[in-house]
Amino acid sequence: MKKNILAQAVALALMASPLAASASEAELLKRLDKLAAEVEQLKAELAATKKKTDTVEKRQDALAAAPVAPAAVVAASAGTAPAVTAPVSTAAAASPATMLGPNTVLSSYGEVNYTRPRHDSSKSQADVARAVIGITHRFDEKTKMVAEFEWEHAVTSASDKGETEVEQLYVEREFNNGLRAKGGLFLIPAGLLNTNHEPTAYYGVYRNFVETAIIPSTWREAGLGLSQTLDNGITWDTGLTTGFDLSKWDATTTDGRTSPLGSIHQEGQMAKSHDLSVFGALNWRGVPGLLLGGSVFTGKIGQKTPDFAAQDARLTLWDLHARYTPGKWDLSAVYARGTISNTEALNQTFAGNPTPVPSSFYGWYTQAAYQLWKNSDYTLTPFLRYERFNTANSYAAMPAGLAVATGPNEGVWTVGTNFNVGEGVVLKADYQKFKVDTARDRFNLGLGYAF
Amino acid sequence: MKPINVTALALAASASSSAFATQYLTVEQAQQVMFPDATGFRDVSLQLTGEQMKQVEKLAGLPARSVAWRVFAAYKGDAQLGYVVLDDVIGKFELISYAVAVNPDASIKQIEILTYRESHGFEIKSPAWRKQFVGKTAAAGLSIGDGIASISGATLSCTHVTDGVRRIAAIAQVALKK
Q1: In total, how many domains does chain B have?
Q2: Which residue in the set A65, A136, A288 is minimally distant from B149, CB to CB?
Q3: A86 contacts in B (CB within 8 Å)?
Q4: Which end of chain B is more exposed for a tag (fewer CB within 10 A), N or C?
């Protein structure tokens, strides 16, 4: 537009010149000088105006929720002035390059929970269960780093129960064919929850049992991974990573009953790496709203630990999962099963202890949620979930008299609601009823956020 | 009025494309894909008035967000086929660039994802997901859970692109409809 004004000014001035055809050469020169001066002045004014618009545009951009092409403001005159189409197009088309947003993004999620056991209110408890800070940094168009740092249970010290951990720390590189490679500490793509574990992403105050007791979310391993998404909606993942360390098994406590893999995971903490594990996952999202998928993770877990009785033990964990979100419904189901082989000799050394190593463990759940009410940015989504799991479904054969009873098939109903405020904040309330261990029946309240 | 300046466009588009590994389509490619019959595209970028912005907000149920919008009109000879509107939204952490083809009656003709950089949700590019938008207007069917199904694990990306398309449908209704 400004160029136009300038051009018009020059054109006008030139058109005016024939009137002076009879004027002397000196007069003409004088007039030219005057014109030159005017052009200079116009240039200065143009520069000033440009500076001003730039400032306005910058301010406007800052105000806008998401970045918008600054060049497009200039482009507004294009419709009436075809002559400037070319430069305007350049600006408009090239603008994405200048609009990558900040290279470093800070993210966070957290949850504060309250639990009141139905039969023993003396065990009521409030907990800052998780506080997580994430940093994503993009080095260039193809390379980025993702990190998540987490505090669990508020305070971490020698005399406190909290944990501080690096939950994710990896670098991802994308190749031209859409193949993505990553290296570092990353989440294993098992089940539905592990890679989507923010409190705003799941129903209920606590993560479901299947994806904590059987699939040990938040489950991450250090290693290398490859993945790719195809146009038909299939995403495949594969990788070579650290695995579990069976020598960490403590047969004297119930930790292994609560979560067999949660008690022997290594979480990238000076992880024994003699035996590496491999994983593969396949997910199909070819129909909008539908996800069907499965995963397998397997590796030896003896880690060549000296004087350890289960050098050849192998863990294999697999799962099948489905999620369907037609309209206001959110339906999902997960089945997960793990096996640990060659534990006979090890379990004999544990004779007399309450928690030998199981040879198999499994769990499944189905869940239905329905968006019942929505008003501006409030949404109320009640849900119902039933899960069944057994963390000690079977043991390798033991000599007569030494056998330990297999774990119960626990069944848990969870009924409750998520109340979302916008897309970043959630309030939760639910009640959980246990089929076997009824002492665990409890009311839960939770507050969570994620951005 | 000459509607064509494709050479300039192509130059501009290819100049920026070399920098994009995660760019699936350049602006020019998106134009060709969405209007294969077009013989030319003309920049008709918009600057909304205050009144228009209010109407857009009312129609879309979203802030109009910006005064300026990058729009190209697609022509076959002298006949106008529709428009291509360019936009960017934040997915979860990163910017998603996309193009929306709009029919002269302000209904959605097609959407194309130009760049996607999030770690999850690449399925947003799949034809099956994008097909959900075709033929719809700002009036109905352009919301997650109401006409558009989300992608599990990429809820924010889907929501933000869907909201963006609804906003563009409203802009088309207010400022582009013939």
Answers
A1: 1
A2: A288
A3: 5, 8
A4: N
ipTM (interface pTM): 0.77
Predicted confidence at residue A5, as pLDDT, reads 54
Optimal mutation site among A58, A88, A89, A373, interface B, most CBs of chain B within 10 A? A89
Pick the CATH number of A187-450 from 3.30.450.20, 2.40.160.10, 3.30.70.20, 1.10.3290.10: 2.40.160.10
Q: Give residue-wise pLDDT tens across range A323-364.
A: 999 999 999 999 999 999 999 999 999 999 999 999 999 999
Question: What domain range is B145 assigned to?
Answer: 6-176
* Min Cα–Cα distance to chain A from B121, Å: 9
Judging by beta carbons within 10 Å of its beta carbon (0-12, 13-18, 19+), is residue A166 exposed, middle or buried?
middle
Domain boundaries of chain A, sorted by first residue: 2-96, 187-450
According to DSSP, the residues that pair with B68 across neighbouring strands are B47
CA B91, chain centre distance (Å): 15
Q: Which of A85, A142, A286 sits opposite B5 (nearest CB)?
A: A85
Peptide bond into A218 cis (omega under 30): yes
What residues does B118 pair with on adjacent strands? none
- Looking at residue A14, its pLDDT comes to 46
> What values do phi and psi take at A4, rounded to 5?
-60, -45
What pTM, to 2 d.p., does this model score? 0.78
* pLDDT tens digits, one per residue of A388-447: 999 999 999 988 888 899 999 999 999 999 999 999 999 999 999 999 999 999 999 999
Give the confidence band of A32 by pLDDT, cuts at 50, 70, 90: confident
Looking at residue A48, its pLDDT comes to: 66
On whether any CB of chain A is under 8 Å from the CB of B4, the answer is: no
Q: Would residue B88 count as lying in a domain?
A: yes
In the predicted model, is pLDDT for residue B177 greater than 80? yes
Residue A97 contacts B where some CB pair is shorter than 8 Å: yes
Structural contact between residues B60 and B53, judged by C-beta atoms closer than 8 angstroms: no
Interface of B with A in 116-155 (CB under 8 A): 117, 119-120, 122-123, 125-129, 132, 145-146, 148-153, 155
Chain A from 264 to 303: CB within 8 A of any B CB? 285-291
| Within a domain: B65 | yes
The model's pLDDT over B41-53, given as tens digits with 9 standing for 90+, comes to 999 999 999 999 9
Q: Is residue B150 part of a domain?
A: yes
For A143-170, what is each residue's pLDDT tens digit?
Answer: 999 999 999 999 999 999 999 999 999 9
- CA distance to A41, A49, A51, B109, per residue, from A38 (Å): 5, 16, 20, 50
